Amino acid sequence: MPVVVSGIKELQRSMKQIEPQLNIGMRQAIKDVMIPVRDKARGFLPANNEVLSGWNKALDESYNPSKYRAFPKYDQTVARKGIVYREGKNKKNDKGFSAVFYVANTSAPGAIYETAGRKSPSGSKDSRSLNPHAGQQFIDSANRTGQLVNARTVGLRGRPSRMQTGRVVYRAWQEDKEKMIPLVRKIVQSVAEDFNSRQKSEAVSAIKGLMKTVPTTKGTL
Hints:
With 221 residues, the protein is mostly helical. It contains 6 helices and 4 strands. The chain starts with 7 loop residues before the first helix and ends in an 8-residue tail after the last helix.
């Protein structure tokens, strides 16, 4: 679900060296556009009393972390704080692409709610729960508060992937992407044109200044 802008990394690299203020301005403008997506995503997280009974309960005192890894407890406050806006290249996906500006769901409970049922709509067959229907019940509970939404951009090449579906960040992006994509591209294009214009202007000034210092010889042969 990316905004694909070719050359943005190269543009940033050049601006950092020559026009750092332009780079700062572009980063702030993109952040102003992306923060509403982050805030909308936070609003899609269910309240503590809306998730499956038991998911938001504290761990039993007998829990021994050396024996197994406990299923992370859900807490809406923690999950909301875990939805963040970030800058800088993130981890490359299986296609070799990485994001420069992005909203991410970073908490364990937030990520679980985001993607529950994405891989196995009926629950994992490898579950070790004493309840054979635990996975399905968990997914059904998540679906009652938010359905999985496919945020894939129409027209993208390649086979559709379930990795582009989710209930929180993906849903927020799907709802706002028709507005967001043109805005981000416009910001980058405007800054790139400004940067190129400044460089051309400085180059012309430098050439004119150089010409003034080159001695000339008059005479005839």
